[in-house]
Amino acid sequence: MRGDIEKQPDLIVTVSPEDLVPPDHPIRNVKKVADEALRRLGPRLGELYSERGRKSVPPEMLLKSQILIALYSVRSERLFCERLQYDFLFRWFLDLPGVGTAFDATTFSKNRERLLTADIYLDFFSEVVEEARRRRLLSDDHFTVDGTMIEANASLKSFRSRQGGGKPPASGGRNTEVNFKGEERKNDTHASTTDPDARLYRRGNGQVAQMAFLGHALMENRHGLCVGATVTEADGWGERVAALELIEAVRGKQRITLGADKGYDTRDFVDELRHRNVTPHVTQNTSGRRSAIDGRTTRHPGYAVSQVRRKRVEEIFGWVKATAGKAKTRFRGIRRVAADFLATMTAYNLIRMARLEPSAA
User: Fold this and answer.
1) DSSP state, 359?
2) Any residues with CB less than 8 A from the CB of 350 and at least 6 apart, and which?
3) What residues does 230 pair with on adjacent strands?
């Protein structure tokens, strides 16, 4: 017998969001670490707001929202706010009541510049890294660095001459047809009208050129956690310059090792590392040239270990692009792209720590 659809009656729900989240869910440990890091940031966050006027959405809530956006592959802040109206796990994570209006997407836009100016995204990332250090999850001696291309939120059609020249479009309309054949376009003479910070970049010979940024990550080799992250303009030497800046922030008085791929095998980069008391465990590039890494380094067993461990940095970039959806950024301007990249790396560290210490929930 065919059943009939019965209209759902109105119910009075007496259960809280806390009761709906399974006790062994990894998000519990993520929330615990994030809340502790934000508690230590509390005094700094309080300095950003006036003591008078209407109360704003707490900045801790906005930072934790960025974590959820990355962990659950939410495509935009607007979609996140829409989901926040009915997703009890999201509301629990943000310490919101089970019912009631939350906030809309304009809250992110209104507060982003305030958080960027105070480097809060970097501070949040650093606090999570320090928590991992307190839990003895980090290596202080062995690291790996690598970079990846982040497609900019700008089209090739916006890459035009700085002098206002260039060929006129073949047809009118919003999405005009443009023929770039025979036109030489370089970053020195051209810039994107959509995002001037983006650069025309190709991954290698034979690859398609795209408007892009470069994201850089410094990984410790014990558990594969990210201990340093930044975004630079896309160019041929940006990876090595960023690597030196990242390693400078973590090195102490003791000698450390730094693994990297063939792209970092240059004489000036290797010499800079040795000058900073860093052993360069860089993959040798012998394709028609002489490698800057010689037997002084390759003869040690630790070099072979670093060559195996360094490949784990690709897991970070794989998660960032496939799960967090950052293969192409939603933001424009290098400061905003960098802040989003740092928030994503913070989310990666949090979920990685939750998996390493499931009993800590």
Assistant:
1) G
2) 30, 33, 34, 67, 71, 128
3) 216
- In DSSP terms, 150 is beta-bridged to 213
- Alpha helices per DSSP H over the chain: 17-20, 27-46, 59-71, 77-84, 88-93, 106-117, 120-134, 238-250, 267-275, 295-298, 301-309, 313-322, 334-356
Total residue count of the chain as it appears in this document: 361
328 secondary structure, DSSP code: B
pLDDT tens by residue, 231-284: 999 988 889 999 999 999 888 778 999 999 999 999 999 999 999 999 999 999
Task: Give first-to-last CA distance, the chain, whole Å.
Answer: 48
Q: Which helix (H) or strand (E) holds 231?
A: strand 226-233
Residue with tokens 């590392």: 273
Helix axis angle, 334-356 to 106-117, nearest 10°: 90
Look at the pTM and tell me if it is higher than 0.85. yes
Check residue 177 and give left, alpha or beta (phi > 0: left; psi -120 to 50: alpha). Answer: beta
- Convert the pLDDT of each residue in 61-74 to its tens digit: 999 999 999 999 99
